[in-house]
Amino acid sequence: MKNKFYKKTLILAFGGAVLFSSVGFKSDFFEIAKQIEIFTMLFKEINMNYVDETSPADLMDTAIKSMLTDLDPYTNFWSEQDVQSSRIDMAGEYTGIGAVLKSNGDNLLITEIYKDYPADEAGLKPGDEITKIGDTKVSDFTENAGALLNGSMNSKITINYIRQGKTQEASIKRSAVELKAVPFYTLLEDQSGYVVLSRFNQKAYEETSRAVKDLKSKGAEKIILDLRGNPGGLLSEAINVSNIFLDKGELITSTKSVIEKYNKEYYTQKEPIDTKIPLVVLVNGQSASASEIVSGAIQDLDRGVVVGARTFGKGLVQRPKEIAYGTQLKITISRYYTPSGRCIQALDYRKRDENGKAVRTKVEDYNAFKTKNGRTVYDGGGILPDVRLESSEYSSITRALLEKNAVFDFATEYYYHNSLEDPLKFEFSDAEFNDFKSYLKTSNFSYKTATEQELEELLITAQSEGFQQDILDSYKQITQEIDKSKAAELDEKKEEIKAVLQDEIIKRYFYQEGLYENHVANSREIKKAREVLNNPGQYAKILEN
């Protein structure tokens, strides 16, 4: 059995080696062949002679991941399950239960339920932790256990899950699940058409163009395109979505690489829907990749006003490469540039600090570029909006609360102890914010600032040089002051944190639809977009040279 596993893994390794050597002979071929031979011999000797039983597959997985870690976080090895998940995301439809999941230790945590799909009909809720799918324990499944929830149309699956400490069981009949690129659009009372574009899958252009046409037919005189939280997707769809508002033949983006064949320019290919209608694009720090291509093109070509917060800053382009056994290498092949020529990549993975982390481009190192009208824009750190709003910008404390699931977990507790009747009228109160602060104390929430991390590294260095005792008292005093500042930051960013909590809570009761309805009524970003659109003079002035 071990020999069979070993042979299969070597075939995979050889296939990967051939791929890497054929990507482009940008390095000396002899050096590549030499390193492959060394690795193959090393891999063989370890598996044949190590004192304990080895798993060739596990060792190869570790080797691959370690190698890719030195590149960028977007260059990844995909298993068959990963490949299938990506195809589902891009296609926008699959057969399953209609829930968003993420790994949570030995269980699968449900983070969102899609309205009227099987998981919803079975009574599942965000916060439920799936422990067993059919006869398989999630903890025993070494790969993506969530794939077990997908299957053929109308087939049934039984799951066990934990809710509020109690184990329960549900029987679910799978159905077709549609992942809409445009989950919501509506005509506002001031004749502004509001369109939410949540992902750039294969349906992005089709659904966005349909929404814009429908809104125009109902009397829309201006458009708000909401790309907040949109993580990106297909480059081709980004080009086509831009084409809705831009003439055929406009340059939207170009890609550059040391591999000549990846140096390309991408122009709009279709007839536009409307090149004159006033347009605002909403973005925030979670708007990435294809979202930045669209917002960057709209800004560089002075076609509309960008409102919100600086975008994520992902200026790298990936392409999947088939390897073997249904696996893929998702590899970064180039950088993309906006029409003005700027690359908005924020992190430079070619440069690392002493901890091996990619270096972020400093503001003073940004380069200036000119839009079509001669306005100055900058590279190096995402798309900077024409109109910036603090409410769109996530502070370090808010990011930490989200990353550590503090907001999510509080919303789960809130749901089981409160009732809501109307998504439009709900507003997270100051009293409830105080409850949240108390919850953080009981849940032992903590996070480290960049300053704290640097201080800890300084202390370790001092210890190695024999100076630890000399600076220990100062170190303790500084950390105490930082703790006070962190506690104060919670109150300083109260409105920002309340908005995040409000969004998460609304989704528990009223799904995505209720969240968008609440945003239309209460979002500061949408209110600002409408203010700009309803003031032609202000709109024109923003786009002037």
CATH architecture of the largest domain: Alpha-Beta Complex
Shape verdict:
globular
Largest sheet: 6 strands, antiparallel
β-sheet strand percentage: 15-25%
Mean pLDDT: 88
Short description:
The chain has 545 residues and is α+β, with helices and mostly antiparallel strands. It has helices at 2-22, 29-49, 56-69, 80-91, 118-121, 204-217, 235-243, 290-300, 396-403, 406-415, 430-442, 450-464, 468-492, 494-522, 524-533, 536-543, and strands at residues 76-78, 93-96, 99-104, 107-113, 129-133, 136-137, 156-163, 166-173, 175-178, 184-187, 192-196, 222-226, 251-256, 264-267, 279-283, 305-308, 316-322, 328-337, 347-352, 358-360, 368-370, 376-378, 387-388. The chain has five domains: 2-70, no CATH class; 93-178, PDZ domain (Pdz3 Domain); 184-394, 2-enoyl-CoA Hydratase, Chain A, domain 1 (Alpha-Beta Complex); 396-446 and 493-524, no CATH class; 450-491.
